[in-house]
Amino acid sequence: GQCVAVCPVGALTEKENIWSVVDALVNKNKVVVVQTAPAVRAALGEEFGLEAGSLVTGKMVAALRRLGFDYVFDTDFAADLTIMEEGAELLDRLERYIEGDESVKLPMLTSCCPGWVNFLESQFPDLLDIPSSAKSPQQMFGSIAKSYFAQKLFIPREKMVVVSVMPCLAKKFEASREEFKVKGNPDVDISISTRELAHLIKIANIDFNDLEEEDFDKPLGESTGAAVIFGATGGVIEAATRTVYELFTGKKLEKIDFEELRGIEGIRCASIKINDMDINIGIASGLGNARKLLEEIRSGNPRNLHAIEIMACPGGCIGGGGQPYHHGNIEILKKRADAIYTEDKNKPIRKSHENPYIKEIYQKFLWEPLSEKSHHLLHTSYSPKQKV
Ligand code: SF4
Hints:
By secondary structure, the chain is α/β, with parallel strands linked by helices. It has a single domain (1-101, 133-255, 323-388), classed as Rossmann fold, CATH 3.40.50.1780. It is 43% helix and 13% strand. It has helices at 2-6, 8-26, 57-67, 75-98, 114-123, 137-153, 170-175, 194-203, 225-228, 235-249, 287-298, 330-346, 356-366, 372-378, and strands spanning 31-36, 71-74, 108-109, 160-166, 181-182, 185-186, 190-193, 267-274, 277-285, 307-311. Strands 2-1-4-7 form a four-stranded parallel sheet, with helices on both faces. Strands 3-10-9-8 form a four-stranded mixed sheet. Helix 2 (8-26) packs across helix 8 (194-203) and helix 4 crosses helix 10 (235-249). 49% of the residues are buried. Bound molecules: iron/sulfur cluster (SF4). Residues 113-116, 167-168, 170-171, 311-313, 316-317, 320 line the site of iron/sulfur cluster. GO terms for molecular function: 2 iron, 2 sulfur cluster binding; 4 iron, 4 sulfur cluster binding; ferredoxin hydrogenase activity; hydrogen dehydrogenase (NADP+) activity; iron ion binding. Keywords: 2Fe-2S, 4Fe-4S, Iron, Iron-sulfur, Metal-binding, Oxidoreductase, Repeat. This is NADP-reducing hydrogenase subunit HndC. Its EC number is 1.12.1.3.
């Protein structure tokens, strides 16, 4: 097909990954769990002739069930978990900074984009103590599925196969990193792209457009509006702001939408007032813009930024390398972003710390953000890599 002509290596990987998923699905000895990233639901429909910006969350869930996954879960659950951990870390750094601790590392950088983490490790080895230590939602999901959820099912982690559907090609590499394995068994076994999922649905002869909408399974399928906006540039930091604001001030957030953090421009900055403090936030999407912002930080942080969100792909994950091709058409990206913010608005709960299943996992399993168990399962560290 088209991909063979454009990118033969990519086509091969694509083929191999699809058939690994099929192998897992037909293996009666395995429990196969799938997680879908926030940006996938805002673009998958395009592969089936639907308009850009069509939200197909319910049809996607139905298709995954038809394909035979035992549990259809949502990376959005893990995005809420990421906010709990990353938000607690930001809160901790800000509180120490206010108390005058000069060793504290600010700005704190978000760490959920492996495209950007790889770039940082090779190009900015002197800045490796700045990112949040929180794992990405894909990896948090895998880690929790193979501990908390496997324990609920009374099965060993080796019996579970975790498949992720991602808008991203860098996620395949992330899933294969040694630090995300336990005794050689990866937290995420197979990562496929949005395009690969579409391919799989077509191979299985499922009439996607005709499917009735269905809901994700519980407990790892429940999420908030804060999680779904991870898919658009600025979304992670907006989600974190919603939670950090309430935890820091103890007050209810009256206006949940932080419009000042949204948009499609490559570099944006905004200030948010939390109590008496102005929190300065920087957002970059696209590696060229990320480099500019990081060079600023290296040269002394002239804008006095406290937190930065960086996404390697222009527009964030909605424009990821595993999404249906958008051929640089910015209108398509805007429509996908609109779909993401619509899903956020339609969610009954829009702040990560209010997700009842997140509350439950802390009560029963993790105890609290940044606990020893959370550190063990949900955090990582970075190391310098050779320039490629
Ligand atoms: Fe992947 Fe791009 Fe999203 Fe980064 S911004 S996680 S590289 S899709």
